Amino acid sequence: MAKRSAGILLYRFHANEPEVLLVHPGGPFWQKKDLGAWSIPKGEFEEEEDPLDAAKREMEEETGIKVSGAFIELTPAKQKSGKTIYAWSLLKDADVGEIKSNSFEMEWPPKSGKKKEFPEIDKAGWFAMAEAKEKIIEGQVPFIIELEQKLKIQ
């Protein structure tokens, strides 16, 4: 079975313009990458788990933000890797300075035999829609476009 992830695309209005919250993956591979490297907070889930419940869980694990409210379901997006991402958007503001991420462990440097811990995400930010489309991983751009359409943004 192909892998599946679920996530939440938070949005807010700043000076009457919509912005979306994106996160930057932690770890050495992503350290110097910016354009095309950001993502919605998301993670994999099991077959028996409800995708929206998984998206809420992943949002809290990756950012420390608990979410509830009127979620807007977005069309799932299939990635080049074959993974399908299920996403919802939610109108909610959050202070990116307060974001707290879980962590993961990996061998670093490679073939060193040493394990090092890294945050799942190393930073988060609010971006206007045009900038967000440049920052986000290419396969997730459709989420921003669909949210724009649902918000009736030209």
Automatic annotation (TrEMBL):
UniProt keywords (A-Z) are: Hydrolase
The organism named in the record is Panacibacter ginsenosidivorans
Which residues span the membrane? none
Does the keyword Protein transport belong to this entry?
no
Question: What SUPFAM superfamilies does this protein map onto?
Answer: Nudix (SSF55811)
Q: Which CDD domains does the record associate with it? A: NUDIX_Hydrolase
**Residue limits of the Nudix hydrolase domain?**
1-149
Drop me one GO molecular function for this one: bis(5'-nucleosyl)-tetraphosphatase (asymmetrical) activity
What is the name of this protein? Answer: NUDIX domain-containing protein
| Superkingdom of the source species | Bacteria
